[in-house]
């Protein structure tokens, strides 16, 4: 496993559309391990592959919410949009981004439909 450098806002790789993962092998497993290690070293809640310069559609997460640890990874995620709840953004719920160090922004979460 390796800790990878995290790209900072302004790097064009952060705005390039991700490419789907088509090969699921030991290299992918090792890369996901690197994402976890990098996220942990940076004290992050989550990290996407493009944040370390890899174009593949992958992200990892590792956080505590409501006293429980949530840890996992997602390969080839999809996003469904819906109207934003009136509570978004929540000025009392600030989050940061590892690619925008030192900044925090009001956020909110849509309802989970699992």
Automatic annotation (TrEMBL):
Give UniProt keywords alphabetically.
Answer: Hydrolase, Iron, Metal-binding, Protein biosynthesis
Q: Which Gene3D superfamilies match?
A: Peptide deformylase
Record-level Gene Ontology MF annotations: metal ion binding; peptide deformylase activity
Keyword Iron in record: yes
Q: Name one Pfam family in it.
A: Pep_deformylase
Region (Disordered): which ranges?
74-94
The Gene Ontology biological process annotation of the record reads: translation
Q: What's this protein's function?
A: Removes the formyl group from the N-terminal Met of newly synthesized proteins.
Report the sequence similarity comment from the record: Belongs to the polypeptide deformylase family.
Q: What is this protein called?
A: Peptide deformylase
Look up and give the organism this protein is from: Rhodococcus wratislaviensis
């Amino acid at each position: 496993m390796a800790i990878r450098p995290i790209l900072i806002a302004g790097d064009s790789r952060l705005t390039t559309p991700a490419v789907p993962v088509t090969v699921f092998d030991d290299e992918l497993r090792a890369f996901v391990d690197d994402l976890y290690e990098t996220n942990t070293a940076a004290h992050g809640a989550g990290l996407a592959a493009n944040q370390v310069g890899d174009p593949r559609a992958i992200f990892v997460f590792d956080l505590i919410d409501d006293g429980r640890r949530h840890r996992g990874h997602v390969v080839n995620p999809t996003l469904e949009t819906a109207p934003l709840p009136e509570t978004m953004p929540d000025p009392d719920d600030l989050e940061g981004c590892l690619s925008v160090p030192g900044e925090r922004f009001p956020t909110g979460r849509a309802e989970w439909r699992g």
